[in-house]
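Hi, does anyone understand the following?
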Amino acid sequence: MDNLGLLSGSQSVKLTFRLPYYTEWGQRVVVCGSEPMLGCWSVKKGLLLSPVHEGDELIWYGALSVPNDFSCHYYYCVVDDENNVLRSEMGNKRKLLLPEGVNGGEMVQLHDLWQTSGDAIPFRSAFKDVIFRKNWNLNTERPLGVQNKVDKGDGVLVHFKICCPNVEEETSVYLIGSTSQLGQWKAKDGLKLSYMGDSIWQADVLMPISDFPIKYRYCKYSNTGNISVETCQNRELYLDSSKVPPRHIILSDGMLREMPWRGAGVAIPMFSVRSENDLGVGEFLDLKLLVDWAVESGFHLVQLLPINDTSVHGMWWDSYPYSSLSVFALHPLYLRVQSLSQNLPEDLKREIQEAKEQLDQKDVDYEATMATKLSIAKKVFAQEKDLILSSNSFQQFFSENEEWLKPYAAFCLLRDFFETSDHSQWGRFSQYSSEKLVKLFSKDSLHYDVICFHYYIQFHLHLQLSEAAEYARKKGVILKGDLPIGVDKNSVDTWVYPNLFRMNTSTGAPPDYFDKNGQNWGFPTYNWEEMSKDNYAWWRTRLTQMAKYFTAYRIDHILGFFRIWELPEHAMTGLIGKFRPSIPLSQEELEKDGIWDFDRLSRPYILQEFLQEKFGASWTFIAATFLNELQKGRYEFKEDYDTEKKIASKLKTLAAMSMLFESEDKIRRDLFDLLKNIVLIRDPEDARKFYPRFNLEDTSSFQDLDEHSKNVLKKLYYDYYFYRQENLWRQNAMKTLPVLLNSSDMLACGEDLGLIPACVHPVMQELGLIGLRIQRMPNESELEFGIPSRYSYMTVCAPSCHDCSTLRAWWEEDEDRRRRFFKSVVGSDAVPPSKCTSDIANFIIRQHVEAPSMWAIFPLQDLLALKGEYMTRPATEETINDPTNPKHYWRYRAHVTLESLTKDAELKSSIKGLIRASGRSYPSETGEKGASVVCGTTKQLNGGLRKENAVLSVR
């Protein structure tokens, strides 16, 4: 690395970088910036710093000679011996302007702190535009203090700079410290900082050299005399006594250190919301009512499940919100048809009212609701299409979304025309080509109105969701979306971008995720190598689109960005899979350890005794139909039936002919078990590479091996699943996740449940990703129940989620578990009640709001358990998803309307009381001055420091 552009002569200024930062052996720190002498953003040409031990700290120094009008942007990064970037600072790039009046030959020293992922969190839109939004005019000011020049012998001009994104109205940031210039620890006499924009506060002060070292802290000081001082040890500023002191120090002190902000939220799928105006399902405009209730209950966040169009099958299977037809299009299910026009004819108003009454059922009737809404929307479209399609607002929407909107509309047309979403069945349209579709988009086309109808629906969905999203922002409520890990194999995205997906494989949940058999989600896996060629443009566009409506999002199954559980396309269950990427076992590696019979280990191990045990007297029929005898007493599957899909297809035929002696499901499970009775999975792309089958010790194939082979394979199994891949998976995540996070300024949370590789949490911490903690699914293997008081700050905690039973249902499921929970968590030896009472719900919810987690987010069903009158519905009916059932019908609707909840002052008061008592922040309501103060009292902040006459002693 070269120090380029060094100057000589009296006009140059010596610029010194100083960064305290611990590194590991072999790691180095580099300054990379916008100017040639800092590499023009090339790390390999940046300024290499040198380490110096100063007391207990490791300080990295570097120097440049620059002109006195020098300015640049820069950041720090850590590299290895080969100059590969290991990690970089998070947050915005630093901006450097030399002080006015600095003279040639003088030294300017930059005292920086490494910007962590936590430092970047307040600048995500969830905080910047919602929680810490400014509803008063905070104007930038001229810096206070001395002029930006230093006369000979006067001392050192220190430029203090601090980031503080959360400053209440009529409050300023002050600097207090050990010197007279800093008020000698008295806030009223301290140094007031000026606001410079972008949450930066700064001030200049001339410090006599004799005053060093300086001890100081920052504080917030309001016009009413309220003070909150940093919750930290005193900061200290030293001069290096062995050198000539600098004439200027630019001191970037990072973030003002205060009690971490904590908030609470409510989670409910969009389809589960019930209002007095909806047509059988929650609608985007209902979010305004939900936001009002959230604010009045003390919540800063509303979390939804995915809201993209899933209309793949044209039936209730499409209720599954994680199987997107398009990752860009919104779901027509959530359209409010009454709001399509202000001039609805009376007969249409009557039709809407009748539909409203018919669809107002206990659960969502997905098919009837979709059919009704589309039918009504088509009638309104026929009436107003010319007016809407020619409007400026539609033209702007079309212009901004044309790239995905036109393929989506064409896909919907072709899906309905061919009566299938399987685009391989679309003849000449099976391969996407914009040239082939030109005629469909022509105004002369017979199908033009159908195409425009899909434009029209998406336009109104955009308007309605945008209205709700803007309403939430103004009310101080974060709208949190959900980013599914997969797309449907028959989707617009796989049609338009086939090279981005591996269509011969599918995504499954790792078998440990929900049950021992795993779950085949059936999504095509991503071709990450292909995606990287344009720097993951599809992902970046997807996140940009999402950020139009949401200020936070949940990354579904974040482990998929480290590694995905990949299955062959012909699999129907999730057990016989492998991680992608992963390092397979080579044939040479296995042979070295004395493993030789690869056919025996990688093909189904089927003995006659197994057949007799599973199928009884009918085993000969099964053998004759599905198997060939390989040798006496040992069988193999016929080629026509050597996959799960082939077996399932044959069984359907036999069932239709009434030739099965037991239930089709039972025989299918038993045959699948035989098919999966293997120890090693041979790589289909390289026959000399193998993957250990998940839970291989459970197979009779493994049990029949000799002891040496068992021991070798067990050792290789544990290495493959728990150690071998860690560095590879970390590298994979660090390629993809930063691109996602930098594609928008939304706050990102990652769903990190299941078998968590050791590399996951360090990467999430480094990138500022917030994890998920569900009490009944603890990350600690030695615990049965998570302990909320021990959760880390960078987490979302919850008693349940959409992928498990509700708090009430979980309580009723298992008496023994209920007793263990009551003893270990509640701390009682008494017999717990068989039902989840309001007191129990209150106890568990209070545990979570009091947790250190940044967010405590509660499913609406769990909150309703706080009041007896809302627990009349059977608890099992409130579960949103049954993960063990891949064909689960997602149709839960709340049994109480938002209007009723808004009127329930008692429930709102109970919830808000829990939040207040926990010290979590809550939104301001009308007449509630200061309700959004983050950190509470001075006593809470400063461990008992007293406020007397607006003077605070912190010696």
In short: The first strand starts at residue 12 and ends at 20. The CA atoms of residues 158 and 249 lie 5 Å apart. The chain has a mean pLDDT of 91. The two ends are 45 Å apart (CA to CA).
